[in-house]
């Protein structure tokens, strides 16, 4: 009975702590120790792990992601070799990274109950802009000022285009960037059009679809 209750609690509320499990059982009239809790859950494949942080998705985001996947499902793998992936990343200089532990089994790290939704925000950090393709990495640029559309175009001109030439992507290459307001600004769209750069349509709040997330 105790085992069944443990499993039920962590399945429905994986963020439950050791203390909460012990107290829940105590209120139900059963006294158990943390050791018993840990041993029981471990026996059934559960282990306390750090919850994965994922973008907060709306229903429209989910549908857009599904459409993107279906649109490219049957495409040739060689087509991805012509894509120049890009992104900006923030590196925290100070402060603690927020973590939360959850009870889960192996390969359940991306189940909604086992993740922590996140939104983008500012802080003490440095910003980097980079790109890469199947042929290698491109230039890495340190963004020292608050970036706007005009600055983004300058970064693309000074870093993206030389990277494309250095990696010898040739004709027909495709540029990927997300839907950050600076990327979708009028000045950016006009610059990309003027340079005849084909842009890969990208769903909002992409859940790490961009392989640059692994660099």
TrEMBL record:
GO terms for molecular function: DNA binding. One of its GO terms (biological process) is DNA transposition. Residues 83-215 form the Tc1-like transposase DDE domain. InterPro entries: RNaseH_sf, Tc1-like_DDE_dom, Transposase_5, Transposase_Tc1-like. Transmembrane segments: none annotated. It comes from the Eukaryota. Residues 8-74 form the Transposase Tc1-like domain. It holds the Pfam family DDE_3. This is Transposase Tc1-like domain-containing protein. It comes from Erpetoichthys calabaricus.
């Amino acid at each position: 009975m105790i085992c069944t209750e443990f499993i039920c609690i962590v399945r429905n509320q994986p963020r439950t702590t050791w203390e909460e499990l012990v107290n829940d059982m105590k209120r139900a009239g059963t006294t158990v120790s943390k050791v018993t809790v840990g041993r029981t859950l471990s026996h059934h494949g559960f282990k306390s792990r750090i919850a994965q942080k994922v973008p907060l998705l709306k229903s429209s985001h989910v549908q857009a992601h599904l459409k993107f996947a279906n649109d490219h499902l049957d495409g040739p793998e060689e087509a991805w070799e012509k894509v120049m992936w890009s992104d900006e990343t923030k590196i925290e200089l100070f402060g603690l990274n927020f973590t939360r532990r959850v009870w889960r089994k192996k390969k359940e790290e991306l189940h909604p109950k086992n993740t922590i939704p996140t939104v983008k925000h500012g802080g003490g950090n440095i910003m980097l802009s980079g790109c890469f393709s199947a042929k290698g990495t491109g230039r890495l640029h340190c963004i020292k000022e608050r970036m706007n559309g005009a600055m983004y175009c300058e970064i693309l001109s000074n870093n993206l285009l030389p990277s494309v030439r250095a990696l010898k992507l040739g004709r027909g290459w495709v540029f990927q960037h997300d839907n950050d307001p600076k990327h979708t600004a009028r000045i950016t769209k006009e610059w990309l059009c003027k340079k005849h750069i084909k842009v890969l349509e990208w769903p909002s709040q992409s859940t790490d679809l961009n392989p640059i997330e692994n660099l």
